[in-house]
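Hi, here's the filled form for the chain we discussed.

Project: internal
Contact: R.S.
Residues: 644
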Amino acid sequence: SFGGKSMSDSFGSSGQSNFGSSNNNNGNSMQSFGGKSMSDSFGSSGQSNFGSSNINNGNSMRSASFNSHSSRPEGNKQSSFHSYPDPHQQTQTSLQQLPNLSIAQDSTGQLFQGLRGQSMGKSMASSSGSGVLNRDQFFNVKNPMSNHQSNPIAEEIRTGLQCASYGGPHSEAEYSELIYWQDFPSDATFTSPYYNPHERTKYLTFEMDGSGWNNIRLGFENMMLLAHSMGRTLVIPPKRQIAHGMPDIHGSKTISFDDFYDIKAINAKQNGFNIISMEDFLERESVSGNLKSMTTGEVIYPPNNQIDWNNQRLEPLLSYINIISRTFNWNPKDCVLAFSAKGTDDQHLFSMMADVLIEKDGRPFPDYSEFQGKPVNVDGPTQERLREVLAGRRKICMYDSKMHAANDVVHFKAEENEERLILPFYAFMFWEDWRQQLFAMRFVRDNLVYNDAIFCLAARMVNTIRDYVRQRSPENAEGLYDAIHIRRRDFQSQFPSTEMSANTILAGIQDDIHPGSTIYISTDERDPTFFEPLRQVYDLKFIGDFGDMLKGVNPQLFGLAEQIVASRSRVFFGTYYSSFSAYIARLRGYYSVKENQPGHTSGALQNTYYLPSKWKREMSIYQAVHVPFYAREFPIAWRDIDKL
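And the returned structure, exactly as it came back:
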């Protein structure tokens, strides 16, 4: 795996057993963007259908189990939080059948007791009769979604939240603090130098990473920007079963990207960038005979002319894609992928890199430490910006006009190798045009935003915590709370340096979180007694404390909502190396700019820390991108990215 990255660093921590703790991945379904739902075979006599039995190209394809599917509802159809029963999970107990929401299932189907505040049985308040929400009141805040019928996907550009469609909050004041994204009209018309609406459509296909959600998310961000930068139409892979994380309320672990993002709205908003489903791609290009073998030039058809591969074994499809596409062997640990400003002349970038290597200007080869606290201006000279992101890499990879013209389809794999793109996009890609670089940063911030169902759930959780804290501590008029994300279980074996006892955690946070404070804990720890040393000092809350608010909600959304909840805390401590914690830090970076928090002009985050304590202040001062890329996020993602 890339840099030893955990294959199971998934939602809520991978094994997010805090449903009271549970392994959170996300989602149910993938909508065919063309509205196409075809199962017919298009084979006819005389056609040479490509079948997996005819190919042996040495590629080792990973098998997966696929579940039955559901698609996003329209009009008055049933809520998108419900899916068809999964025939592969019939032995598992549905969460709807569980007697208490503090009981959840992990990825193996094993039942476990979820963590709850105050030893799971005491009042959440330190005293009763004082207007404080007691245990039963807090646990049973009703979920407005439980009897709610979802609305159609919005066509308009997303600039806020539409929580009324998801059961609240209904007041803008109750969710406005969560909105960090913006609408730059000029971004909607920004196109790549390689985009040409008059040429034959070029495509980018990719495989969903085989690990947990936050690694999948990192890969998806890379694919979105690769497709845009290459001027290609992005082909969304078939929905598939996620390897790590919680099943939905019916036991299915099948997900697709439009379970978590409003793909349709992104597609409608962005000119010069198109997104289609694999089903539409195969119908448009493959069964029409438009795709040929890259080696023989022979027209190749998909296996059995099949176009619907949702919830099915993907090896035959991936073998076919490998035959008709070009794969680039770009290793992000060895090279920076550079895009020239004009899409034609790229030799000057190689010359620029050569000058850095031979130290032509007398300066030594750059080390990331020389940029600590001293970021390069976002609109600075190209060579200076390149030096800042090299991170020890001594070569650049290049996508050029010849590659663009010669390859109708390019494909990115998700195998466990050095080319696996589970790192922040800005640690891999570099754009010569600083305007395009900042567009890329804003594109991710303003478009790859969790959907309204997730944000509105998070808003209800944040409001509930804030109301509880205000009642518990009237002097805390803002309802400020703190948050911690603790990864344990398999993560400790993959990253032994992150193993911590509860007393170690307590020692690491007590200088920054006052005794008696309310702390929201997101964790995959299953033992309800593990956090007892912290409970003696702090008022602890877990996702299991939200009771009825979670009924009817897809458990695969919990981890994403927890990330938002943690991002709005006063102080946050994450687990180093965890991409779940890292994304919380990035969100906090976005909010720091929106709210003009101390340090935001330099990209520093003053109240965002890591555990174990040797990494505590990683975010406290500007640092340039450096290895391991996946261990944390970097301020280049949010610092001064609104310059036009």
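Let me know if anything looks off before we file it.
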